[in-house]
Amino acid sequence: MTKDFAIPLDLDHFDVSTITNLFQLVSYAGLSAPCSTLRVINDSSISVVISFNGVDDNDYVAWQRSILVPCQRNSRPGNNKALFAKGTKIWVRAFLTAKLPLGVIYFAGF
């Protein structure tokens, strides 16, 4: 019998103390492992916007919140498809804020 399971992966993190209103690359190497779902955990004092190309606003993550970004419905661990490839680059920028940016944004995959 085939079992469908997901292993959580700690992929990357970004210290927001230097964040600006312009997109900044989280890691030059990109994601450290492939995944079918990306979880963005904003453990900081500001809201942020993430992008997968450094130009377009792809998702908004409020401060002290998290979001799940599924790649697509047929991308699951059970069929060995992980469409967020290893090396996928992610950019972040501050979402119009006057607060002092403190904390970290974590990226996890499944």
Please give a quick description of this structure.
The protein has 110 residues and is an all-beta fold. It has strands at residues 9-15, 24-25, 37-44, 48-51, 59-61, 65-70, 91-94, 103-109.
Could you walk me through the main structural features you see in this protein, from its secondary elements to its overall organization?
The protein has 110 residues and is mainly beta. The chain has a single domain, classed as Sandwich (Jelly Rolls). 0% of the residues lie in helices and 37% in strands. The protein is built from no helices and eight strands. The strands form two sheets. A four-stranded antiparallel beta sheet has the order 1-8-3-6, with no helix packed on it. It has a four-stranded antiparallel beta sheet with strand order 2-7-4-5, with no helix packed on it. The mean pLDDT is 83.
